């Protein structure tokens, strides 16, 4: 709660910050909505709202919960010799209509075999492609959820899935507000950017202008002496897609040391999840470390279960998933939220215990929020 403002507090509890300001005013405290408040003010609010102000963050609390089971998310992966190279995980970002979806589709279908008859591509929220770079097959994982939700919602939860951002800029439109927004998100996350200057098939395309515009935002193309790779592409005409993939690999090699221990118990993130009528809860997860296997007991947010089956982006059964690989997991008891973490644990019992504790905590937090809202309403009415 350090540095928290009334706005932060109000957001957390789902009330109006202005009402909190008003309430405090009645209690003799002059506080604005955005200034950070001290603990005394939080205590006063807590007392008045019949709410125990939590000084512990939910993240800390969860860390404690896991550690009571001798678990840690993001635990040390061991020595250099235990680590092997893992593929980069890429998110595509950019202004509305600049071609993110079309580019993701083109990259996916440009990949081996996807166009074959019968090879139905499943939308699982992430996929992997293989590309040849200097005679070596290199894999890249794309997170395929709409917009940059994956990126932002996961970051908001403190989890980072993305290693590299592809910034899509339509060459006819040039840099637009959400281009800059995306750029800032990636910068804030410390994620290197590869620029895909898209729609170069168009008459009105001006890729040079895009380079000039982005240079002004500090994203200077290599050919201008900067360190960002720009690739002119057309998602529509499937032009230069291989060059774009190569740029991603080269950027990963040049500025990131992407390695993971594939021997340990798997840990990673939930990319998306839904309830399938026939199959029950279905979650697409991204393995970040370790290897996930059919039969593993896992806990994912407040959901748990044993991995009954795993499918890849082609809808084919796989028995294991190594670091950076996305997989659709069947066998959970409930649908976890996007951005929540998953961990392999010793057995089903442990998975259930952790999940139940998380659920109880979520329920208690919800009840507390409801109570605060009710008290505040009463206060306002009096
Ligand atoms: P939002 O998801 O709404 O933000 O848009 P988006 O960035 O996903 O754009 P989308 O892929 O839906 O493309 C927007 C429009 O541009 C569609 O009509 C695409 O067919 C078209 N488009 C995308 N890429 C190209 C391209 O390389 N050339 C041309 N000519 N059109 C393209
Ligand atoms: Mg789209």
From TrEMBL:
Residues of the full protein shown: 361 to 742 of 952
Organism: Nocardioides dokdonensis FR1436
Gene that this polypeptide is encoded by: infB
UniProt superkingdom: Bacteria
Domain Tr-type G: 85-257
Binding-site positions, GTP: 94-101, 144-148, 198-201
Location(s), subcellular: Cytoplasm
Family per similarity comment: Belongs to the TRAFAC class translation factor GTPase superfamily. Classic translation factor GTPase family. IF-2 subfamily.
Task performed by this protein: One of the essential components for the initiation of protein synthesis. Protects formylmethionyl-tRNA from spontaneous hydrolysis and promotes its binding to the 30S ribosomal subunits. Also involved in the hydrolysis of GTP during the formation of the 70S ribosomal complex.
Protein name as it appears in the record: Translation initiation factor IF-2
């Amino acid at each position: 709660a350090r540095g928290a403002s009334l706005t932060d507090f109000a957001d957390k509890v789902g009330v109006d910050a202005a009402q909190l300001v008003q309430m405090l005013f009645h209690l003799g405290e002059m506080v604005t909505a955005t200034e950070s408040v001290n603990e005394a003010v939080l205590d006063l609010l807590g007392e008045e709202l019949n709410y125990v102000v939590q000084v512990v963050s939910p993240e800390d609390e969860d860390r404690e919960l896991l550690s009571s089971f001798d678990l840690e998310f993001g635990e040390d992966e061991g020595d250099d010799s235990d680590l092997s190279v893992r593929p980069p995980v890429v998110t595509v970002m950019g202004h509305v209509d600049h071609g993110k979806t079309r580019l993701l589709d083109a990259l996916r279908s440009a990949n081996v075999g996807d166009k074959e008859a019968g090879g139905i591509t499943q939308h699982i929220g992430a996929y992997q492609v293989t590309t040849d770079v200097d005679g070596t097959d290199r894999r890249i994982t794309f997170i395929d959820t709409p917009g940059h939700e994956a990126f932002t919602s996961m970051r908001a939860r403190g989890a980072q899935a993305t290693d590299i951002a592809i910034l899509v800029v339509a060459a006819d439109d040039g840099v637009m507000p959400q281009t800059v927004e995306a750029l800032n998100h990636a910068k804030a996350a410390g994620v290197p950017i590869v620029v895909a200057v898209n729609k170069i098939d168009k008459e009105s395309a001006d890729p040079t202008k895009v380079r000039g515009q982005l240079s002004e935002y500090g994203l200077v193309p290599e050919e201008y002496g900067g360190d960002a790779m720009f690739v002119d592409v057309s998602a529509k005409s499937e032009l230069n897609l291989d060059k774009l993939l190569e740029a991603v690999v080269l950027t990963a090699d040049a500025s990131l040391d992407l390695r993971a221990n594939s021997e340990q118990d798997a840990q990673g993130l939930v990319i998306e999840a839904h309830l399938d009528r026939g199959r029950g809860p279905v979650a697409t997860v991204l393995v970040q470390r370790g290897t996930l296997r059919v039969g593993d007991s896992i806990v994912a947010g407040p959901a748990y279960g044993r991995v009954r089956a795993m499918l890849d982006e082609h809808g084919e059964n796989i028995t294991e998933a190594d670091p950076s690989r996305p997989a659709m997991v069947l066998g959970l008891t409930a649908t976890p939220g996007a951005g929540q973490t998953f961990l392999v644990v010793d057995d089903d019992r442990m998975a259930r215990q952790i999940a139940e504790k998380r659920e109880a905590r979520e329920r208690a937090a919800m009840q507390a929020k409801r109570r605060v809202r009710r008290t505040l309403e009463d206060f306002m009415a009096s």
